[in-house]
Amino acid sequence: MGPSVTARVRPRREVDWFSLASVIFLLLFAPFIVYYFIMACDQYSCALTGPVVDIATGRARLSDIWAKTPPITREAAQLYAFWVTFQVSSPCPGVGHSRWPPGRGDQAASVFQVLLYTSLPDFCHKFLPGYVGGIQEGAVTPAGIVNKYQINGLQAWLVTHLLWFVTAHLLSWFSPTIIFDNWIPLLWCANILGYAVSTFAMVKGYLFPTSVRDWYVLSIGSSLSKFTGNFFYNYMMGIEFNPRIGEWFDFKLFFNGRPGIVAWTLINLSFAAKQRELHGHVTNAMVLVNVLQAIYVLDFFWNETWYLKTIDICHDHFGWYLGWGDCVWLPYLYTLQGLYLVYHPVELSTPHAVGILLLGLVGYYIFRVANHQKDLFRRTDGRCLIWGRKPKAIECSYTSADGQRHHSKLLVSGFWGVARHFNYFGDLVGSLAYCLACGGGHLLPYFYVIYMAILLTHRCLRDEHRCASKYGRDWERYTAAVPYRLLPGIF
Asked: What transmembrane ranges does the database entry give (predicted)?
């Protein structure tokens, strides 16, 4: 038997005023920030200052702007319900039904729902050399549990995009611009799901957690605890560490990887189709954005097993921060470049386009190789070559929440000898390339690189705080060997 509910819910720490103020600010205003960006494109051709200037000068009132905002529609609700149900079908066995948007092809939809819902257990790893899919193990949780995951994101991405091509282009069941045409109504649907799943996760965490052992350890005995006596903080950061329904449906892996990231490339394709419909052709800037972001998305799914060992899965709880963020923030703000190019088609000169492509590929190379070096080092316990040499490492030890002493190594070779988070630098270089493809006419498409700089800097600090607590003096030895966090000579 596990510990009592009373023992499990005892808060471990209090929230400081700054953290609480930040949490309340995000809960109140993040949805309006997303709305503001999308509304500015819809009503002001992506001019971020346009709404503010109109209201300040009296040319418009908030009620006027709201009156021009498309409401939720039946078509958008059906489309979004189909999309989520279709994506849910991939990781979790069962039986499901959905409606093919906008009302045609129900038999085909049902067939594919059954196939995906009974999971078509991942077959990509059987014929794609180097790809690791199927049943895989995650990291050890604070209570010593090793969860298993059904890795089939690449398969879901391929099936989804194949169906998109066949139904939209070959069968013409709907226009490929359908996502753009319903973009704001879909925003309301995404918000409903984001808040619904976040609320459900919190209730589930208190009343019927998946793992009582993790619940107990993280409630009263671990430095990883996010449990507090504050409702708002708990709602945002999450109660449960690895919430699940059944054996395979894992909330964190599903919402981090789907439906938002699978949708990312479909959204960009819909934007490209709309640009062609409005302007007669697809610009090379739109092609660049589609290609570079598709590389990033495909990299995510190709390395989905590696993702099980990242900060999102290993350390974050599942709350509003991930639930709403993955449903709304990611698909709506990570795709601003494509949306901007619908309203402002940019045709780059050949040298400019080639330069941006190379910049994006260099950023991706740094990001991927840095992550590969760490993964290779971990898998081989250092018995490998990095940049043609035997890797160097700092020997360290730590005590886990169950009191066990463990030994580990911190890599100081390759890109990990250049900076402690040089993979994040590669991510930022790639992010900058997406934005530069949009030219310099507006600030809006540059939101992504600004946001990523803040996010990844914050991740650096979070990760280092956790590692300093975990490794103690061994971490000091590591930071002395690799003095810079993100960018050598600067930070």
From this structure: 17-38, 154-171, 183-203, 215-233, 253-273, 285-302, 350-367, 431-456
Q: Which residue reads 């529609």 in tokens?
A: 73
**Is the pLDDT at 40 greater than 50, yes or no?**
yes
Write phi, then psi, for 133 (nearest 5 degrees). -135, -165
The tens digit of pLDDT for each residue in 389-421 reads 898 888 887 776 666 777 788 888 899 889 989
Mean pLDDT of 293-299: 94
User: What domain range includes position 114?
Assistant: 72-347
Report the alpha-carbon distance of residue 355 to residue 367 in Å, rounded. 18
Distance from C-alpha of 425 to C-alpha of 427, rounded to nearest angstrom? 5
User: Cα 326 to chain center, whole Å?
Assistant: 6
Please check whether residue 167 is in contact with residue 105, taking contact to mean a CB–CB distance below 8 angstroms: yes
State the pLDDT confidence band at 219, using cuts at 50, 70 and 90.
Answer: low
In a domain, 149, yes or no: yes
Q: Is 120 exposed, middle or buried (0-12, 13-18, 19+ CB in 10 A)?
A: middle
User: Is the peptide bond between 391 and the residue preceding it cis, with omega within 30 degrees of 0?
Assistant: no
List Cα–Cα distances, 74 to 42, 167, 173, 189, 214, in angstroms: 20, 20, 17, 10, 41
Average pLDDT of the chain? 82
Q: Quick one: how far is CA 483 from the chain centroid?
A: 29
Look at phi and psi of residue 246 and say left if phi exceeds 0, alpha if psi is from -120 to 50, else beta. left
Measured in degrees and rounded to the nearest 5, phi and psi for residue 409 equal -135, 140
Say what the pTM is: 0.85
Strands 146-151 and 134-140: antiparallel
Please give, one letter per residue, the 3-state secondary structure of 313-343.
Answer: HHCCCCCHHHHHHHHHHHHHHCCHHHHHHHH
Cα distance between the two ends of the chain: 49
Q: How many domains does the chain have?
A: 1
Task: Give the tokens for residue 276.
Answer: 């062609």
Name the phi and psi angles at 159, rounded to 5. -65, -45
CA dist., res. 136 & res. 158, Å (int):
20
Question: Would you tell me the crossing angle of helices 153-164 and 284-302 to the nearest 10 degrees?
Answer: 150
280 falls within a domain: yes
pLDDT reported for residue 335: 96
Residue 146: pLDDT over 80: no
* Half-sphere exposure (Cβ direction) of 131: Cα atoms closer than 13 Å: 20
Q: Averaging pLDDT over each range in 196-200, 248-252, 312-316, 400-404, which range is the top one?
A: 196-200
Of 416, 287, 432, 420, the closest CA to residue 347 belongs to 287
Selected residue with higher pLDDT from 306 and 275: 275
* H or E element in which residue 364 lies: helix 350-380
- Is residue 408 domain-resident? no
- Is the pLDDT score of 108 beyond 80? no
| Residue 289, in any domain of the structure | yes
